[in-house]
Amino acid sequence: MSWSAQVLAAVILAQTLYFKFTYAPETRHIFGPLGGRPAATLVGLMELVCVVLILIPRTAAVGAVLALGLMGGALVTHLTMIGIAVKNPDTGESDGGLLFGLALVVSLCALVVLAFRWRDLPFVGRAAV
Fold first, then answer.
1. Can you tell me where the transmembrane regions are (predicted)?
2. Percent over 70 (pLDDT), the chain
């Protein structure tokens, strides 16, 4: 169960990297009021770190904590600034809440990983004893 959650979270996070690193129109629309390209690149780098950490069994719990923090920020941003459904600025079409839903899925996957691997966290699990 943990491995499935790790892979699903990593795949979702990885597929968004192209948009953040190329600063695609959708990304410009989302990150424009939040710091622009530097903010998008920074979030992309943190998501890349999450992908790597969450796929390595020994560091999966740390990756899950980082992913949970990033997705918490994404969810709060959706709820307070950009809305659940994001419109494509070029076409005017809504994503129907897809990005919000994917952030929820990654958050749930991170919680599943933590439920199974919390003992691998530094200062909390086996490493603290």
1. 38-56, 63-86, 98-116
2. 96
If we measure between CA atoms, which residue out of 51, 74, 80, 45 comes closest to residue 37? 45
What span, in angstroms and rounded, lies between the C-alpha atoms of 104 and 97? 11
pLDDT, mean over the chain: 92
CA–CA separation, 30 vs 119, rounded Å?
36
**Burial degree of 9 (CB within 10 A; 0-12, 13-18, 19+):** buried
List the beta bridge partners of residue 94. 87
Give the residue from 52, 117, 62 showing the smallest Cα distance to 126.
117
Q: Where are the domains of the chain?
A: 2-119
